[in-house]
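[User] I have long wanted to understand how a fold can be written as tokens. Those tokens are not coordinates but codes from a learned vocabulary of shapes. Could you go through the record with me and say what the backbone is doing? Thank you; the sequence and its tokens follow:
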Amino acid sequence: MTDVTDGVLHTLFHSDQGGHEQVVLCQDRASGLKAVIAIHSTALGPALGGTRFYPYASEEAAVADALNLARGMSYKNAMAGLDHGGGKAVIIGDPDKIKSDELLLAYGRFVASLGGRYVTACDVGTYVADMDVVARENRWTTGRSPEHGGAGDSSVLTAFGVFQGMRASAQHLWGEASLRGRKVGVAGVGKVGHILVEHLLEDGAEVVITDVREDSLLRITSKHPEVTAVADTDTLIRTEGLDVYAPCALGGALDDDTVPVLTARVVCGAANNQLAHPGVEKDLADRGILYAPDYVVNAGGVIQVADELHGFDFDRCKEKASKIFDTTVAIFARAKQDGIPPAAAADRIAEQRIAEARGR
């Protein structure tokens, strides 16, 4: 890949990038910005996906993450019924150390240079206040504050959608769309996870949590002493009597080490790209573990930010996010009909919608 000089975009087209339409490397030396914008597909409309700010081990790792996340957004937007393709951006670095208005403004100029092919929003490491800054340089930024014409934090509807997917999983497996009396383990109780915990408690679930941040755990256990906090994810997934495991932190939560020791019967969480590699979905199915595809159940946030482009209405968005329940039920039915894991069934449905759009 070609290096990037100040203020210059190099758009890269490669046949070996999983069908991605465009990959943009961004660098602004004055602010310290190094970023990657990946556009997987615009068949259904402008690519829509958040901006992740993370201290990647290498630029190659950042590019790989951007590509995987962008592809996932194409499928997510298709399954959510949105007229958007998939894209994603990653900013390389520790946001606690290098994030600044100057850096975010520089990033906003790169988004602007794409002329609407990519619409950005919040993701890990970026927040509503950050999007307000980015939006000063372009009109293709969502996830802004209400004071700046936006819809605010999309975590609320993301958590709501995951909860709907979890209810659908419970109905499919246990015959009742409720988590009452079920033990649910939530790994990662940050922006989305802590709201999901509230839904679960209201529904009568027993909740076990873990997080790398002690303050995130304390925020919940101080308010809800009935919630149990455990040391780490490995302890959580081995918890006796666990019915549902909800990965709500970074991707790759389901791999060759975790799947064999999972005690839960259902996996349904907010994290993106939970399957560490192809084949994990089959390993889950072989163990009798029901997997609710991540990009289906965590689509509440993208439903919200997409609506923001047309004049945000929370009730309208919540109604659309509630349909994640029906979509998840339909995926399980398709998986059973075709004799394939739910993840493969979701991919087939999404690919069909994208292909039909390309053929129009």
